[in-house]
Amino acid sequence: xxxxxxxxxxxxxxxxxxxxxxxxxxxxxxxxxxxxxxxxxxxxxxxxxxxxxxxxxxxxxxxxxxxxxxxxxxxxxxxxxxxxxxxxxxxxxxxxxxxxxxxxxxxxxxxxxxxxxxxxxxxxxxxxxxxxxxxxxxxxxxxxxxxxxxxxxxxxxxxxxxxxxxxxxxxxxxxxxxxxxxxxxxxxxxxxxxxxxxxxxxxxxxxxxxxxxxxxxxxxxxxxxxxxxxxxxxxxxxxxxxxxxxxxxxxxxxxxxxxxxxxxxxxxxxxxxxxxxxxxxxxxxxxxxxxxxx
Length: 294
Fold this sequence. Notes:
The structure is a single chain. About 65% of the residues lie in helices and about 15% in strands. The protein is of the alpha+beta class. It has 2 domains: about 5-230, Methane Monooxygenase Hydroxylase, Chain G, domain 1; about 235-290, Magnesium transport protein CorA, transmembrane region (Methane Monooxygenase Hydroxylase, Chain G, domain 1), CATH 1.20.58.340. A hairpin with a 2-residue loop joins strand 4 (about 55-60) and strand 5 (about 60-70). The longest helix has about 60 residues, at about 190-255. The chain is rod-shaped.
């Protein structure tokens, strides 16, 4: 069985293969679309599939860190031919095709399609582990030093998990289609294998939901920490304002242009007023201490 591998969906050879094997124009259009989602569709004599392999690459903003990146692989699996359109720089795609060549059977294109899909799904587990590590570090940082940078990281991971969940949901639907469509290239012998892949995707979705809950908890902890910090600052300001209140009140009274104030004519009036201010301030400090404000 011939296996045609293309590295560019706009390769003219794809048009030749479309004429030779009667590939539907809409499937060719989907293969050439840059933002096509995961899907499986069965033609008259073949099954067309779009999968999204995931791999980790250095983050351009932080080269020491990794970031999950999705690629695309399009597969036309017929009874007597196989066409794959891949991104040549994606290691997950290369791994999937290598496994299909090693463990597949040219006489069973359905098995080749299953091996490609199964390898891509297995790669998602590494991405889940990657997110687990990032969330663990984020939780520690939220407890130790909550900052706006931490908040930005929380929202960034939430966006990445939303994208991962969207791909996994579509992959789950694709597995379900391969199981139930009688026109699918997957024969009865490999239905059990596709069901096993479907179970793996379901487990991955559960893990994503758990991670989203953990992120929400981290966000709640961050907001609580910021609120507690604000309360502490307000408490300190309140204590300082209360301590300064006797001095402000006494100085305000003696700053008024009035006659007959105590110690007004005394040569030691300033000392008496100063002593009174100190006594009142000490009394306020004693009361605040008894109330355990500090």
